[in-house]
Predict the 3D structure of the following.
Amino acid sequence: MESINPELRALVDKLVEEKTAALQAELDEYRKKDVALESSEEKYKMLIELAPDAFFQGDINGNFILVNNKAVELTGYSREELYKMNVRDLFGRDVLSQAPLRYDLLLKGATIKSERTLQQKEGNPITIEMNSRRMPDGTYQSFIRDVTLRKKAEKELIEQKSFFEQMYLQSATSTQILDKDGWCLRINPKLSQLFGVRPENIEGKIYNIFKDKEIVANRIDKILRRVVEEKTTERWEVKFNIGNAADSQNIEVSSRNTKWFANKAYPILDIYGFVEYLIIQHEDITERKQAEEKLFEMHEIFHHFLTKNPVYVYIKDKNLNVVHVSDNFGKLFNISTSEVIGHRSTRFLPKEIAEKIDQQDRKVLNENISCEYSEENNGRFYYTHKFPIEINGEVKYIAGFSLDVTEREKAKLDIIRAKEKAENANKAKTVFLANMSHELRTPLVGILGYSEMLMAEATDKVQQEMASGINRTGRRLLNTLSLVLDLSRIEADRYEINIDYHDVILLLREIFVNFKGGAAAKNLTYSFKSHVEECNIKMDPEMFRIIFDNIFSNAIKFTREGKVDVITSEQQINNKKYINITISDTGIGMEEEEIPLIFEEFKQLSEGTTREFPGTGLGLSITKKLVEMLDGLIKVKSEKGIGTEFIIYFPL
């Protein structure tokens, strides 16, 4: 191989060196770009992670390939779960059918902004705002923002606007809205009604309040200018001629009356604090003003009442100083009226009488109550009535009047003496009947005994029927007599009570069995249900039998068909335990207002009922008295044609 020319070799080496340096420089540039690209991607990912909105990147099929932390927070799914999901999985079928994702528009390069409902992992629906776009590499990117609170706020704002609009339109207060220059912009229906003006005849650049001659004549324009200039609220009352106001600006109104109005004006400021609108509200106080005139008339009438009234009338303040009296008041204590006004009773009355009156007056003032009493003065009787006078919820005065009732008191004493005499006579009668118990019962029991003997020995059918009739009517008479005598003993306080512990369930069963035949004779369903087998309480067994004999007898007597049920239970009333005994039937029943009458002595609800169901009207009256003597309670529930329920309570 021939040796290379040194010059050529040097040239080749130089070219190789230059080429190598160029390649190294190019390689270094590529490396820098790779580093810059990696840095750019890291910054991009960091920006995505720090984005305030949820970020989703999906492939051409909508499967997620990149999401940020906000997306995890928004959906409730983990990042791993989202990477296994499709964008359609975030929305329900109904949402997608109503608002499709519109890939067709995205393929055309459109950016789609939409609102839809997203279903979180826990199943909670939220309202979102979704901005989507197709990227050059074929993927899809979406930024999603939770706008649930914003939508809720917008809804509330709309509702509030509607609410206040309805308030304005339906307000009972007449209201108009003006601009700061006085042009009427809007009136509500109440103002339209109050002034008799249609909205289209006054709203807009039609009516200016500062040009209203009636407004100017009453100097209201100065009040309104002060509201605008000083940004203050003003109130005033005015007697206003609607017809004159309308004529001053050719406004058509249906009412031309003169009325009294209470008015209020205040400014509405913009965000910079400048007056933007002027609100004026009106209230028709014509009736109030008329009432004030009427009140003045009543004051005059009251003045004449005080000066001319034959009854002794006075009014005192809180310090018990007399402020008003009738002209005749001085005659009551033999003093002149001028000696009374402005002074307390101690100034013009004896100390003992004055202190008594002051004590009564303080009671009326301090306790805010009325007080009435009778008293004697110089041989005459007087009825006095005192009462507090409240003003704005505070007792300010005490008023009283005294009436000479001497003749009435004398008549009352006569009535009291006559009443006492009658009561003594009635008591003597009651004691006599109670004492006659043995004398009346003994011969009647003898008659019943002989009638039973006749019934047993008589062979003739007629004689047997006669003996049976004597026995039946005799027993009815004995029952009536027993009721009358029991009532007499109760009223005379001569009823002996023998209290000891007894099993009331056993007593009740015995009484229940005694009436079984009567229930069977009428084909009634007859049942007994006890909440316990035994219940020992303090009880008089004889009184217990009388009580339930009467109630069982009535239940069967007044029930034509159906049933009679007896049930016991336990109940606590006002922290005290009771045994309840309930006897219910499906009898004729009664109206609710008739219930109190059944406990009145000798009371039958109707003549028709009396003929079909004979009785004295004493049984339930005695029953109630006996129950109360045993510290028990008795209640009745009934419905006409349905039945009746008696509930008796005895303390345990």
